[in-house]
Amino acid sequence: MIRLVVMLYVRFPLSLRNVEDLLFECGIDICNEIVRHWWGRFGPIFAGGIGRQRANRMRAFRHWRWHLDEMYVRLNGKMVYLWRSITKARSSKASLPGRATKPQR
């Protein structure tokens, strides 16, 4: 039941009182402070377990790699193309021969 309460609060955009009301309609009478306490105590434990499960599933693949999506971010009030920033940082450390780079826009 604790896992259900914490997952309701974390997974959906619900307030503590909304979770309390949903559970009351199901016949479970708890206070919103109990929901907050359980979230603070068990939330990191559940999140760590989920992260470990995801990592283990990903490691099961033979060629496991993380891929970063191309995106724009705002740095110091200026929009910066993230891929270009990463490739510049890599090329300043050491250039990799034979590696294709993205065309700059």
TrEMBL record:
Domain of life where this protein originates: Bacteria
Name of the molecule in the record: DDE domain-containing protein
DDE domain location: 64-88
Signal peptide (residue range): none
InterPro entries, per database record: DDE_dom, IS_Transposase
